[in-house]
Amino acid sequence: MNQQYQKPTGTRDVIGRESWQLSKLVGFCLGIAKNYGYSLIDTPIFEKTPVFLKVGESSDIVQKERYRFTDQGGEDLTLRPEGTASVARAVVENGLYNEPMPLKLCYAGPMFRRERPQANRYRQFLQFGIELYGSDDPKSDAEVIDLARALLSEIGLNAVRVHLNSIGCTVCRPTYREALIRYYRPLVTDLCEDCQRRLDQNPLRLLDCKIDLSYKEKAPKTADYLCAECDAHFTQLQHILRILDIQFDVDPFLVRGLDYYTRTVFEVFDEKLGAMALLAGGRYNGLLKQFDGPDLPAVGFACGLERLLAASDLMGDDEDTIYVAHAPNYADQAMKLAQQLRGLGLRVEADLVSRSMKAQMRDASKRGRLVVIVGREYDEGHVVLKDLTRGEQKLVAHADLPSIVFAELDPR
Ligand code: HAM
Fold it and tell me: What per-residue string of b and e applies to 131-165 under the rule 16 or more CB within 10 Å gives b?
């Protein structure tokens, strides 16, 4: 195909099984969020550009990765790179802060970042996220992390690693910031270009650098600079996580790429994805105020659904297709039977192009394991059920077909 028609770099056409699996995953996520009392919010996929400046003017998302455009009316717009800023804007604009607190909102949809594409890192990707407003109590941080655990466990990811840290608040962070600048200043000529720039703009991000790793070991640790309130908050959070049996590692150098965080930050990793986070989030107490809203504390997380899918075994968990084949003159009965089986929630294919029986069987073998053959036996209330993998077949009374098919599909 001519290059000008090909999809943009870093985007994908999601087709067939993967597409089903992703929508199934959205269903799992929303179902779990509902169990934890969340309601759904859908915000536009683009916002006025200043909305995302709240993510942090020195962040990569704002400095390098924005899909920013001016529309025909001259409006400065940006495709959303994440959901937290949009939800904060929507909470203020719709007066949701008047609802009973805590306010719990979840969302799922595409996000856009012009990152360097690689496996599991895309320029358009799907995120599921949750945002909890109105509680500064570490119980809410713990419940948010517990929701992440429940979600990952639901898709079979029980061996994930939770990295946890507290990066302090507006009271204690400036002292930590100064300590970092003091530590890194003499090393500045050895630092990468990005870190040289970050040193004055946002020195915490130096700890996040993948190039200048060696300097990090001796850098000042956030934990040594927390004020008494932040320290107590972090200690209490760890206590509740232990009560909830959630394993975590305190990572004293964990900072996040977005500037709105205060106190708790966390990232979750799985072996299959290595150093790429599966899920990430934290507390962001000052954000709502930046949108001219009340000073409400908040905490949340988001996960990349493509990454969840890549790490889980869901991809292998494909539903069986049942094929309804028919002998000549039994096409009507086969259509009716396929309709009945679909009505029971089964995934059923029937011949739609009047193929010969032999061609139908060939088609069936490409689609699944079980074939129901509608032929002469139908007149006596029977059909033939054939298992293509085992090469076995049996005569089944029409009325018993659903229960036998269900037992075949799930022998437990
Ligand atoms: P984030 O760390 O930028 O945080 O992204 C959260 C998750 O989105 C990542 O852990 C990853 O799974 C997925 N993700 C990010 N970028 C990509 C990409 N280019 N391709 C595929 N997946 C990606 C946030 O977005 C915050 N809004 C999270 C949050 C919510 N904090 C508080 N509330």
Answer: bbbbbbbbebbbbbbbbbbebbeebebeebebbbb
